[in-house]
Automatic annotation (TrEMBL), chain A:
Gene giving rise to this polypeptide: ERB1
Any GO MF annotation of the entry: ribonucleoprotein complex binding
Organism, as annotated: Mycena rosella (Pink bonnet)
Lineage, broadest ranks: Eukaryota, Fungi, Dikarya, Basidiomycota, Agaricomycotina
Region of interest called Disordered, as start-end residue ranges on this chain: 1-132, 284-310
Protein name from the UniProt record: Ribosome biogenesis protein ERB1
WD repeat boundaries on the chain: 397-438, 652-693
Location in the cell: Nucleus, Nucleolus; Nucleus, Nucleoplasm
Domain BOP1 N-terminal: residue ranges: 136-391
Cellular component, GO annotation: nucleoplasm; PeBoW complex; preribosome, large subunit precursor
Gene Ontology biological process terms, A to Z: maturation of 5.8S rRNA from tricistronic rRNA transcript (SSU-rRNA, 5.8S rRNA, LSU-rRNA); maturation of LSU-rRNA from tricistronic rRNA transcript (SSU-rRNA, 5.8S rRNA, LSU-rRNA)
UniProt-listed PANTHER family: RIBOSOME BIOGENESIS PROTEIN BOP1 (PTHR17605:SF0), RIBOSOME BIOGENESIS PROTEIN BOP1 BLOCK OF PROLIFERATION 1 PROTEIN (PTHR17605)
UniProtKB/TrEMBL annotation, chain B:
Taxonomy, superkingdom: Eukaryota
Protein name: Pescadillo homolog
One Gene Ontology cellular component annotation held by this UniProt entry: nucleoplasm
Keywords: Nucleus, Ribosome biogenesis, rRNA processing
Main localization (coarse): nucleus
Bias-annotated ranges (Basic and acidic residues): 583-607
Region Disordered, residue ranges: 546-620
CDD domains: BRCT_pescadillo_like
Gene: NOP7
InterPro entries referenced in this protein's UniProt entry, alphabetically: BRCT_dom, BRCT_dom_sf, PES
Amino acid sequence: MAAKRKQPSRDEDPRTEATTFRAPVETLEMLSDDEGPEEDAASDDGQVDEFPEIDAASDSEAEDEVDEEGSDEEDFEEEDSDDSLDRDIFPKPKTIISDITGQPKRVYPEIEPDYDSDSSTEDAPNRVGDVPMHWYDDLPHVGYDMDGKKVLRPARGDELDKFLQTVEDPSAWTSAFDKTAQMDRPLSAEELDIIRRLYANEVPDAGYDPYEPMTEFFTGKGKEEVMPLSAAPEPKRRWVPSKWEKQKVMKIVRAIRQGRIIPSKPKTASKLEFYAIWSEPSTSHAPPLPAPKPRLPTNSESYNPPEEYLPTEAERAEWEALDPEDREHDYLPKKHSALRLVPAYDRFIKERFNRQLDLYLAPRIQRVKLNIDPSTLIPKLPSPQSLKPFPNYKSLKFTHSGRARCISISPDGAWVISGDENGIVSLWEVNVGREVKRWKFEGKIGALEWCPRTDVSYFVVGIEEALHFVIPPNLSSTVLLLTQSVLAPTTLPPAPETPSPVKWVTPPTSSWSPDTAILTVQLPQSSGLPKQIAWHRRGDYMATVSSGGTQGGVWMHQITRRHSQAPFKKIRGAVQLVLFHPLKPHFFVATQQYVRIYNLSEQKLLKTLTPGIKWISSMDVHPSGDHLIVGGYDRKLCWFDLELSDKPYKILRYHTRAIRSLAFHPTYPLFASSSDDGAIQVFHSRVYNDLMTDPLIVPLKILRGHTVKEGLGVLQVKWCARQPWLVSGGADGTVGLWCS
Amino acid sequence: MGRLRAKGKAGAAKAYVTRTSAIKKLQCSLADFRRLCILKGIFPREPRSRKRANKGSSAPTSFYYAKDIAYLAHEPVLKKLREHKAFAKKLSRALGRGEWSDAKSLEDNKPVYRLDHIIKERYPTFIDAVRDIDDALCMVFLFASLPSNARLPPSLIENCSRLAAEWQLYVMHTRALRKTFLSIKGIYYQAEVMDQTVTWLVPYQFTQSIPADVDVRVMLTFLELYQTLLGFVYFKLYTDSGLVYPPPLDVKKDEGGAGVGAFSLQSTSQSAPSAPPKVRAVQIEGRTISGKDVRQAIKSMAGVDSEVDGDVDMQNPDSNPMEVDEEFVPQPSTSDPHSAASLTTLKALAALPQSLTTSLFSPYSFYLSRETPRPIFEFIVRSFGGRIGWPASSGSGSPFEESDESITHVIIDRPVVERADESSEERERRLRRKYVQPQWVVDCINAGKILLEEPYTQGKTLPPHLSPFGEYEGAYDPALGLTGQTAQESESEDEDVVIPEADEEEGEGQLAEKTALRAAADANDAASLRAAELAAEVAGVDYGTFEKEVRKSRKKSKAAPEDGAEEGEQDMNKMMMSNKQKKLYEKMKYSQKKKASERETLEEKKQLLQKQKRREAKAG
């Protein structure tokens, strides 16, 4: 407000400014004070009403009125004195004619700055201060006055009185309860005005104008500073030409003179000029590999191809169903009757882009293109016709009721015994296939083997937990006697010092008959079915492998001593097969994945062969003892050269199902394998004495004739000792004889 | 035992780096790395063992040779790219601050990389470069046909079309075009330049739009390289054949849509007298003097030759056939001694013995109907020495009008329409000329001789258009017809159809004949054959059928059992193959079988079509 009173052309003392600003601040304080005594408030009424008007007037007068420093001081005094007279009312100014300017001016009563001048502490008889008044709730007084006397609680009527008062007193609705005085006090006009303004969402201060025009104190027209702020003299650098600038400019000038900087350089840098780039000799670097050229178009890409290139409906559908990456050609042949009808190729840019992606993102490998006839890859082997004899047709068939699991051929090659799963063992002649005798055993026949000795004749039948030694009929008396003396000698050999769990039982001589076994070896309890019987070549020792039992189920039996022992205290892995070396005191043991070779005389491990088969099913050793073939359920056949390595020399995989049985011919260079695919493979296998020459393996013949039953094919093959004949037993219950 | 080696210190782990580590090493962005790879021709490699190259990890990554990346680290272009990065920052700052003059001077001194050293590096000899311009040509021809937009500035398109035109000019000038193929994708051309076959594909003249899944940045980077490469290659090609590079462009003709005709070839022998300094001079001039200046200089020089205007290489087309070979822009004008002299020098410079096929069309003049694409046929015909004219609607610069008497062929691609209001003169002209469809021109080139016009005349159903590039060996050849085996089968099938009818008619006698023939079929040795022959004679079979029957049966018997035995043995021997060989064998057999089956399906289709046609012919 006061600021508006300033004359724009005049310089003003900032001090006056500050003082003039104080007036409204004070009024504000007074207005916010609601402790005015009621008698004053009543007398105030008229003046209070005037107050805003003065305020407004001062606003409107702002520009005409002129203040002076001297009068301002008076202002203060007057204001104060006025204030002391009638307390909390704004001091009333007097308008007088200034003796300096001759203009009318308002003069406020001077404020007397003594202790009483503060109106806020003026009356209030109750001097308890700002304490919670409920402390006095139970007391007859409400506080103490300045002299320490009790201020008694004013009498308060009951509700009815209160109501009557509100009805009678017209000012009752503008009064509020005063806690300190414990009575109703009418609100002053200013307070009411504040309430009204608060209701109306206005600024509560009546004297505040939110839209005051801006007052320019220092800026604006005519207010520019003309006097310098500092009296320091102008520095030299403001008017002496810069040395450094000169140096910089001279540098450029020199560069221009020397031609290092061309002032108006023509902008031709963007255009590359071509020159004879290949006229200079090239570097010694080898040129990078040229990118492969794209495929040249074929007839089918023509706009007018021969009609046979056009795709049929099925081909078109197939092409469209494929993913674009899987398509053999990226287009479908189409025929246009004239060149003008050929449309644009929609994938042109895409194909160019793909080519470029190939050029910079695809790894390139330089491949030698093999331009050979695939048939040259097949090894050249001698014709099977030149490697005769070998079995190539089925000459006989012998039928069992159950699966013919095991076969054995007598050492002279004239008789065959075959056993099936129903416990039947049949003896029949090789030449005519006539059954001579039949034995019936309890349970499955696990293994059958003829003793390799030629001076005696008997065979061993392995059934559940027992081995039966049986003498075939129709033997010459000398052979029979010798056999009987071997199997059931009159004087039994002395019992071994360590008792064996295996019992050798011979029935009494009186009960001997051709139908029963002459000797029975009872294997220990729960040893299961003997899976294999392997004879030593001399015919005295015999090894059996049982499906269960301790020590891998391997037992070594000696006929002359009627004694059995387990060669291994413990063995790693489940033993599948065992074999005696044909010449040396070596013993082959095939576990599930490895073949171990033991020296029996020194009782130590010689070698471990790793065929790489998951599960070994069959094994046979070459008559020379230097080669071993191992077959597995995973269709692999491994040929080991024992002199060469622990790894197979050759791995063959030709059967479509698991290999079941393998057999080397004792005299002819032949071996055969049988499989669950129902086929028997006959190979020529020539082994050379020369260590440098690899063995020659020639596939000769695939013999088919067994039917596959319940997933099982040919279960065992055996060779006749003196002829290139093969006997095979199948899961279909037939035993076949294959002749050359 | 050798020295122990730490893992990852030698071998594949050192020789290969992954893309991420390459970028880290080069300290550039992926986009810059890609650009460098494109420009330098560096591509990922497939290590023998990905695991070994990637320190035991088998994650899918692309590998680069560590040496390649080491070379990249010293690449000047990489340096320029880094400078460009700094420049971009500076420019954006200047623009942000509104410092326009700074921005302008920055823009003026923008770092620009040059690619000539890369060209020299990637193609140490000129032959290497020519061998590799296939892709470059394809791209340039494609971009020449694209519409310009924000990504493709008009200057780029213009430059591409200039490069395309210059290539066509060179090919036409040296008669290097060998084969052309109209395919559904576009037109394949094959030229022989510096004993290298160059094949390029030109799209048909339609507006192409770049699909959304194509990264234009990659294409533009390639194009950048290709433009530079082609520039250098052309320079060498042009200067080697004694021409000025770049060939001056006649702006007026170009605006008239003259296409390649807007450029005029100029021999350097005119501008420089001796050969060795000639190249030098041209280089200097090429750098400093614009095409216009050259043209003016040449004009002033040629001013002596009274009427000749600028173009050096124009002669009278009718003067003699050899001159026709040499001529480039044939315009009827009187020959003068000076142009004849220039002709000899051109001849000496070209020094290429041209066979008959390259001047295949030299005796003929062609006229293009307005619906045939002019650029294609102008290029083809002129590459083979023919003269060609076109209506004004196909562009300006036609050397002769439609009414020209020398026109021998009209290339027309619309159905025959009878015209009622035909003047006698027009009629006479129509009868004198041959109206052929465009395919005739292309087929003539591919055949290397002038084919009969008859199957290609206007409105006829065209014979199939075959690829001149051939297919793999043993593929189905539609031109040869059916091969032996299947053809015979079809024959026999036909016979089978016929025989039953004959049987019914002849009855008894036929039976005897049949038994005789069967005896012949079964006969193996000479004696029994003789007996069978006699029996056949008795039965009344003529000697021809007997022979045929014997041959057939022999073939059958030979094919069946012996093959079977052989096959069996082979099958058994396959057991003895190693696993690797077996896989290779199976693969080869598979591809052979696939090829054979492809061939068979095509032959079957052809047979079906033939039968159908025969049936239709019978019915009709």
